[in-house]
Amino acid sequence: MDFQQNISLKEFNSFRLDATARYFSRFSSQQEMQEILEYVNKQHPELNKPIVLGGGSNVLLLNNINGLVIKNEIRGITLVHEDDEYVYVKAGAGENWHEFVQYCIGRNWGGLENLSLIPGTVGASPIQNIGAYGVELQEVFWSLEAFHIKFMTPVIFTAADCRFGYRNSAFKNKYKDEYIITSVSFRLKKHPVFHTSYGAIQQELEAMGVTHLSIRTISDAVIRIRSSKLPDPNKIGNAGSFFKNPEVFASKFEEIKKQYPGIVSYELPGGIIKLAAAWLIENCGPAEGVSWKGYRIGDAGVHEKQALVLVNHGNARGEEILSLSTEIIRSVNEKFGVTLEREVNLIP
Q1: Which percentage of the chain shows pLDDT scores above 90?
Q2: What is the dihedral of CA 219, 223, 229, 232, to 10 degrees?
Q3: Residues 11-24: what's their mean pLDDT?
Q4: Strand partners, 24
């Protein structure tokens, strides 16, 4: 068991924030994880609520952490079961998400292709109910295995247990900080159904000259789109989309549209309209005639190509990025009467 002290977390979070963990450890198996937790319970009971990191791609570290951070590095991909229509595949929580998606695409297992190039690990995917280009994780999720930190017991969660919502699950509220996810199982299709109507996928496929549609070509199109719009965390610190796309009733949408006819929206069932948060942010700013898109204060900023993405230009602190996000939320609310919600997880 590797138990270190005063470790910089800069390389373990995609914002590249230089926060320090008083104690830090890693585990690559459930046994190693149990050894860490048992050691903590006996020797350091004050550290019995560890912060768990996977890829660190959806967190904002606000301060140094005067406690224990443990990094989940459980790997492994296993074909559990298959029938005429589906394959059931289990992946360790520490598997890189994009690499796992490409592994499945290489075997023509359909369902994950629209979720290509999303940063992070497999274990974080159900917590966030990740989604992109018309597909959400809950559509391919089968079950997950997690370990209860306090009672030291393994638990299996079904989709119903996870209470999935838009970029949400029970692990972000009801079960927050209670479990460590060790593996996730997916049900993927042997005969894929293609989803190309959302966003610019169809246009990108045409630009690529694709004549034979496949999950591989869809994945390639998604990768090209994301690469053109979203910054590489290895080059500039960021956590991808910082805000959720807000949802409003149709009556509220019509009210906004009268004043701002160019507003970008997507119709959902039940008279609900999803608004493009990026459009809202781009069309207001810190001052009259100034857009948030590309705005920078110190080393905290908004990406020049995608207003949904907040970035660390070098030495920003978590509190500075949080402050910038608060100002963006305020200005969008003042102009459009819509309240944005942060997608990233704040770690105080």
Answers
A1: 91
A2: 140
A3: 96
A4: 4, 69
Cβ atoms of 147 and 153 within 8 Å: the answer is yes
- 3-state secondary structure at position 85: coil
Phi-psi region of 119 (alpha: psi -120 to 50; beta: other; left: phi over 0): beta
Cα-based distances in Å from 8 to 13, 16, 60, 64: 10, 10, 14, 9
Q: Give the H/E segment covering residue 280.
A: helix 277-282
CA dist 219 and 116 (Å) reads 6
Q: Choose the catalytic residue: 136, 282, 320, 343.
A: 343
Q: How many domains does the chain have?
A: 3
Distance (Å, whole) CA 112 – CA 315 = 35
Active-site residue, from 169, 241, 325, 331: 241
What is the CATH classification number for the domain harbouring 189? 3.30.465.10
Residue 277 in contact with residue 308, Cβ under 8 Å? yes
pTM above 0.90, yes or no: yes
> Which of residues 42, 72, 102 is at a domain's end?
72
Report the alpha-carbon distance of residue 92 to residue 125 in Å, rounded. 12
277 to each of 5, 24, 125, 266, 274, how far by Cα in Å? 40, 36, 21, 11, 9
Please say whether the beta carbons of 162 and 141 come within 8 A.
yes
Per-residue pLDDT of 308-322, as tens digits, reads 999 999 999 999 999
Does the annotation mark 167 as catalytic? Answer: yes
Whether residues 255 and 281 share a domain: the answer is: yes
Catalytic residue selected from 167, 187, 224, 342: 167
Mean pLDDT of 94-119: 97
Note whether 135 and 224 are same-domain residues.
Answer: yes
Whether 42 shows a pLDDT value over 90: the answer reads no
Same-domain pairing of 286 and 301? yes
Same domain, 257 and 189: no
The answer on 191 and 93 residing in a single domain is yes
Check whether residue 138 and residue 269 sit in a common domain: no
For residue 333, the enclosing domain spans 237-347
Whole-number percent of the chain with pLDDT over 70: 100
